[in-house]
Specification:
By secondary structure, the protein is of the alpha/beta class. Strands 2-1-3-4-5 form a 5-stranded parallel beta sheet, with helices on both faces. Strands 6-7-8-9 form a 4-stranded antiparallel beta sheet, with helices on one face. The chain has a two-stranded antiparallel sheet with strand order 10-11.
Length: about 250
């Protein structure tokens, strides 16, 4: 049984989200403030207030007492890759970008439909499970069965070892950033819309917020590109989407 932690200070919303998820067969723990939620999220073993830890996903509100959701997200991501779904009434783009920038995997604005909420939870968990399983499988595969690295100019993407280097410099990427970069690099020159990337990489069809893709592309560029403002690897095609450059050359 998959387990979920809900960090939400509004009791009615907290209970409603738990009802939705328990109806789908999830085990759910609740936290009413930021400090309690962060402690529960980072619990390596079941605790009195976190009996189902470690979790498969965290549902995180932003406006929390104690410490806010941004600080909770930052604290979780410093120690864990657990998927984080921000579910909040803060609907400004700057809040979405900040939340995703701190490592959240998705952002859902209240009020939301039960269908969309459950669909996003399932998609995040499924995507994380696929990425983790692929990493374990590839890491334990025999050397003659390991896929060769993707080499694009000075960039080397080793999918078997989940390692990225650019001119010998190792680039630290999250699971989603790595999956997005590898997907684009495997199809150089092909333009993919944000919707296509969200479906292919995140594994969630039709209900995604495309700002998620934009923010993750921005993160990859900041870590990878010599000049993120003038990218040489991941190009923006105005009005269409993104593509990996066919001939990526550094100046």
């Amino acid at each position: 049984m998959k387990s979920i932690l809900i960090i939400e200070d509004n009791e009615d919303i907290r209970e409603l989200e738990r009802d939705y998820l328990e109806a789908e067969g999830f085990a759910v723990d609740l936290a009413a403030d930021g400090r309690q939620g962060l402690a529960a999220a980072l619990a390596a073993a079941p605790l009195e207030r976190a009996p189902h830890a470690p979790y498969d996903l965290v549902v995180l509100d932003l406006m929390l007492p104690g410490i806010d959701g941004f600080a909770v997200c930052r604290g979780i991501r410093a120690q864990s890759e657990v998927p984080i779904l921000m579910a909040t009434a803060k609907r400004e783009d700057i809040d979405k970008i900040r939340g995703l920038g701190l490592g959240a995997d998705d952002y859902l604005v209240k009020p939301f439909s039960p269908y969309e909420f459950v669909a996003r939870v399932k998609a995040r968990i499924a995507r994380y499970a696929r990425v983790s399983e692929a990493a374990r499988r590839e890491g334990g595969a025999a050397s003659d069965a390991v896929a060769p690295p993707i080499v694009r100019g000075e960039l080397v993407i080793d999918t078997a070892r989940r390692r990225v280097t650019e001119r010998g410099r190792e680039i630290a990427l999250t699971n989603l950033e790595f999956a997005l970069l590898a997907f684009l690099a495997q199809h150089p020159g092909i333009v993919f819309s944000r919707e296509h990337l969200f479906t292919s990489v995140w594994g969630l069809d039709a209900v995604g917020d495309n700002a998620t893709v934009m923010v993750h592309i921005g993160h990859i560029r900041e870590k990878l590109e010599p000049d993120p403002a003038q990218p040489i690897y991941i190009e923006t095609v105005r009005g269409a989407g993104y593509r990996f450059a066919e001939q990526a050359r550094r100046g």
